[in-house]
Structures are given as C-alpha cells and as structure tokens.
Amino acid sequence: MGRVEGKVAVISGAARGQGRSHARLLAAEGADIIAIDLCQDIATNDYPLARPEDLDETARLIEKEGRKAYTVIADVRDRVALSAAVDAGVAEFGRLDIVLANAGIAPLTKGGPQQAFVDAVDVDLVGVLNLVHSSLKHLKAGASIIATGSLAASLSSGNTSGMDAGPGGAGYGFAKQVVSHYVNNLALQLAPEFIRVNAVHPTNVNTDMLHSTPMYRAFRPDLENPTREDAELTFPLMNAMPVPYVEPEDVSEAVLYLASDAARYVTGQQLRIDAGGALKAIPWSG
C-alpha cells in the first residue's frame, strides 16, 4: 500500500517542474490528483511558463501510475476561478486530503518594471492564500497543507540569493518570507482540528525557472549574455554542500512525507531542502 493510498491532492503549478514531480510521486504512492496550472505567460516574467500540453503530460504521468487526474487551467491570483476549480475536483473525487500550494514565478530582471514586484507577490503569496483558503472547507482531520517556500525566505526580501534581481526578485523574497510566517500561524489555528500546515523551502531546483536567461543574468551580472555553464559556476555559492541545485524529486520526497500519515503530528514546520543554504545565510550563533 502506498504512503498516501486513497487520498486526493490538489496541486497548483502542476504542469511542470516541482508541481509535476509532486503529482507523479503522490500518484505513485496512491493519490488521485487535482492538477491546476495557469498554462500561459505573465508579461513581467521573462521566461516562458507552462502550456496546456505540459498539463496534459502531467495528467498522463499520473495515469501511468494507475491513478486519476483532474486537470484545470486556472490562475491562482483569481480566488473565484480557483475556488471553482477546487470544488470541481472535489466533486469529481469526493474528498480532499492534501493541498500543495506550489505555483510560483521568479521575474528576476534587474531594472525591471515595478509591476514585477506586484506579480511575484500575487502569484507566490496571494496564490498560496487563495488555494489554501479555497480548500479549507473540504478538509477534515488528518488533512495536510503544504506550501512551497524557498531558501529566499531566509534572505533579505530586497536581495534574493544575494544578488540584485530587481523589483520581481524583491517581491519573490518578500512573498516567500510571508509564506513562512503564514504557515506557522495557520498551523496554530488548524491544530485543534488535526489539520497540519507545513512549508518546504528548497534551494535552487533543477527546473525551467532556474534554467532561464533572467536567472542566469541574476547570478552572473558580470556577463552580458551568461550561459547555463556560466551560471552553474556560481549556483553552488548559495549552498553549504557544493552542489548547484537539487532535483525536483528531492523536494517531492519531503512533500510526500509531510502529506503522509507518518507526519501526523508534524505541523508548523519549515522543512529546508536547501543543501545547507540557510546555514550560510543565517549562521548559528550558539
């Protein structure tokens, strides 16, 4: 029997990257998946976002694991549309046990428009609130809410990863910091109902968000047109372990634990999958 056998999970940002990885592993461990994604670009975000065919591929991978997929194209910034998507998925499967607020963007363009700050906050923070709050009415004792944070939650909100990443980078860092506080406070509110709330905080993850021109430029501002190879020379500087990034599957394993009954008394936690990055950002003073 799988570790989340018979459960139903809703995942935002499910079309690719971490969201797809989470969907695939949870399905392999017995869960049906409500997979939600915007599947179109956001103007201030200077790398392509997922497309409908990416969401279709996530559904195919879920079904390959022998579980059911219910896909919805919806914007996490739109509470009404998102709530309708969650309600439709619950109507399809009859229950909801796991909420994975994962959708995110990183509009890291130095000197970019101030709207990039707004968009980063609206997706990376408001989108988390919208999915969780749209899901609460469906949750019962034993449910698990998991938010995707970031190593950036341990850094200055105005300086993501120690580099100047423009208004969008500041918005990204701010959003992840507030998500961390939100998880702590919501966990206290839901603990009497035995509903758990936790966050995972990865360092760089090997996804399309990381492997993008804006990210390369943020990590290598000394170069006019940095390549992946150029950026990967500096990626490891974030971490205590000498690795440039972790894989989406590394984060998914942490998500699976928090979603499972093995973590039935784990709530309000900030679980870092960051290769020791936070240890460098916030040295222990003893």
Structure in words:
Belongs to the short-chain dehydrogenases/reductases (SDR) family. One of its GO terms (molecular function) is oxidoreductase activity, acting on NAD(P)H, oxygen as acceptor. The protein has 286 residues and is α/β, with parallel strands linked by helices. The chain has a single domain, classed as 3-Layer(aba) Sandwich (Rossmann fold), CATH 3.40.50.720. Helices cover 40% and strands 13% of the residues. Strands 3-2-1-4-5-6-7 form a seven-stranded parallel β-sheet, sandwiched between helices. Helix 1 packs parallel to helix 2 (52-64). The radius of gyration is 18 Å and the shape is globular. The model is unreliable at 157-162 (pLDDT under 50).
Please outline what is shown here:
The protein has helices spanning 17-28, 52-64, 79-93, 115-135, 166-190, 213-219, 228-232, 248-259, 277-281; strands at 8-12, 32-37, 69-73, 98-101, 144-148, 196-202, 270-273.
